[in-house]
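Dissemination and training. As part of the outreach component of the grant, students in the summer workshop were shown how a complex can be specified as a set of sequence lines and then modelled as a single object. The example used during the hands-on session is reproduced here so that future cohorts can follow it. Participants entered these lines:
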Amino acid sequence: MTRIFLFAFLSLGLAGGALAADLSLPARVLPAPHSDDISPQMQAIIANPPNPNVNPLWKTGEEARVSADAGAVAAVQRIPGLLERLGLTMTAETIGGVRVHVITPKTLPAANRARLLVHVHGGCYVLSPGEAGTIEGILMAGLGHFKVISVDYRMPPEAYFPAALDDAMTVYRAALKTAGPKRVAVFGTSAGGALTLEMMLKAKALGLPMPAAIGVGTPMADATKVGDSFYTNEGIDNVLVSRDGFCDAATVVYAHGHDLKDPLISPIYGDMHGFPPAILTTGTRDLLLSNTVRTHRKLRRAGVEADLNVYEGESHAQYGRGDNIPETREAFGEIAAFFAKHMAR
Amino acid sequence: MTRIFLFAFLSLGLAGGALAADLSLPARVLPAPHSDDISPQMQAIIANPPNPNVNPLWKTGEEARVSADAGAVAAVQRIPGLLERLGLTMTAETIGGVRVHVITPKTLPAANRARLLVHVHGGCYVLSPGEAGTIEGILMAGLGHFKVISVDYRMPPEAYFPAALDDAMTVYRAALKTAGPKRVAVFGTSAGGALTLEMMLKAKALGLPMPAAIGVGTPMADATKVGDSFYTNEGIDNVLVSRDGFCDAATVVYAHGHDLKDPLISPIYGDMHGFPPAILTTGTRDLLLSNTVRTHRKLRRAGVEADLNVYEGESHAQYGRGDNIPETREAFGEIAAFFAKHMAR
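and obtained this result:
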């Protein structure tokens, strides 16, 4: 690999009159990582070409829903095999009018019998409707041996901000009643990671108790495109690819005119004092690496016990790709162990 | 900022016959990050143009030493002011024939009176001789309120691998005798982070007790250029800039023909079972981000309690830039709190 020569120049910054330096980077070829500590399965995922579907820049909930339904087909097809391999049953129910899927291990360890996880799925607030949204919940139920309630929150065009959060809160309240706060944990990835944080802000505002722990997977914690890895990992993250891609368009559709800097959409701007112990997960190529580490730092500054795990070479949310991937088993195992450590029996 | 269009192609991989995908990235302009949660001082450091001194590719210890002495002048000039502002005294001594600087707070909290930190400085195994190597130790003594012994280990051309490690072990043995293992912690950054890990491997091999905790700053844990951020952050890290720069050349000089994959030079390849609790620190733009998170993961897999803090936008070791920088006070405060939590009084 030849050395890259750099040309840097100073320019007057864009924000606040501060002097900012832009860095001109030359074109380059980036090899896929191939260290011994990345599994062959994950190496293949990392080596995938960039997501070719980065460009559906939906303008309406109706447009987004067409894509969401199309994308859900493959996800739903995976579910029977997943449930069987992981020894789970899943039922569709409603809780306080909110659609949920209840995922239950056929054998539940004694320590987890009274414990309950609330799962809020990802998908930029518009993707993974219905059963398609349960896969992360299924993986956690199966790999962590917990009972999981996965919230099938309303999405555009059925409803817009704050419907997803309201639905999640309805299920959270029910979980508090069923299991008690010390036996409840909440988790999710991407929009689900943001929703997990938003739920804590909302619970604080409502005077509800915090759960025992939260799992915050690479959260969409800042919808205003602040976060250095939106730039440094542009085109390198092969899932989200660009900060100006589908996920940004989807968030604008969900917000439906609401201020994107509202902490209930960009929870990095909320007050995290009093949050429960949190475990955060991301990867070095993740477009949301910065927003994960910014959230981690904000939690630490608020005195919250917070663990951060960053996986080598992984793009956005790739740790959750499947039960047959060593890094998925490892990451979910670590999150489950964190929950078990902090939850009452 | 216009969207970047990507051209990706598959190629037969270089290693092990695996199919690897290289990613062709176009030229681009990277703005300096300017989020509200980065201090103005750190924003200015992050916005610095890339280190223009990336190219002295030393071939001998003598060549490296000329650069080291030149670079030490500015560092040494900072020391009197640092000691005064932080309320410290510093004396040059020897321990078992090894040169050290003993850094002592003028007022030592009762909890820290019997505690002792061993500091191994960074500088790619060839830079920061003499007093120039004490700055990180001074910052920790002053910001963490600990007594610190900073090891002025022999460097090329005075001596080569494993002299640095041998000198550090001599001081570590003495610290064990003085304070007892439960009151000792070891820390360092970059080559000092690698040396900290190497010391633990060596202590295990020698049957010496582990210290109470270690602080592993962005360690040069893999001298074989494995680690994805060597590529993803190439030209973005404004300190190290390139994996083929001065630090790589320096490590080869230090190794002096020894296998770079030896765990005592690349500790990522060592067995970390039984290591003490560790706190790791890096930044999103760090060329060694990957080797920090790989080390973190390896520690976790070995059952070691390990905290990882990743600072937004920072390049290699920028968290340690100065006592007047909020991120330095924060990072050293977090490391000090971790030590205090794990050390006996």
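Chain B touches chain A through 71 residues (CB under 8 Å). Students were then asked to discuss how this feature might be tested experimentally.
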